[in-house]
Design brief:
The chain contains five helices and six strands, in the order H-E-H-E-H-E-H-E-H-E-E. The protein is α/β, with parallel strands linked by helices and 146 residues long. Strand 3, helix 4 and strand 4 form a beta-alpha-beta unit.
């Protein structure tokens, strides 16, 4: 055990976060995300039994967001015509605001199929048991300065 490390972060996930460099991306995926097929070239980390918000909060305690890009946080857009509601996005905005001075301005959206294409290039995908729909979130790592 280590002091100051959120207990929700497994040794495998901590290793992945430490390995990632500036501009590398990580996807925290909901339970419906096709992580194994999309992540054939990525490290897939299982976080069964956990939801996206608690992992997002824990990761952002250790992981700086890229300050050289307008939207280092991206959400999967709701498909046109889909009546789905995304209240979990409000939770993400609150979490990002606690960890990044840009707050909600750091968050963008990517069309669903483009999100899948971008996820194929991610360094890692964390699979969760999150049941909310359109709950996938992609983070781009920044530079550790302190």
């Amino acid at each position: 055990m280590l002091k100051g490390i959120p207990k929700i972060l497994s040794p495998e996930l901590l290793r992945v976060l430490a390995e990632m460099g500036h501009s590398d991306r990580i996807v925290i995926a909901d339970g419906n995300f096709p992580a194994e097929s999309i992540g054939k070239n990525a490290v897939v980390v299982r976080a069964d039994g956990h939801g996206v918000p608690e992992l997002l909060d824990a990761i952002l305690q250790l992981f700086p967001l890229d300050s050289y890009t307008e939207h280092p946080v991206n959400l999967m857009e709701v498909m046109p015509g889909d009546p789905a509601k995304t209240p979990i996005w409000d939770t993400y905005r609150e979490i990002v605001t606690r960890h990044d001075t840009r707050g909600a301005k750091a968050i963008g959206t990517i069309e669903r199929f483009q999100f899948y294409e971008e996820a194929r290039k991610a360094y890692a995908i964390v699979t969760t048991s999150e049941m909310a729909i359109y709950a996938n979130i992609m983070l781009q790592k920044g530079v550790v300065t302190a």
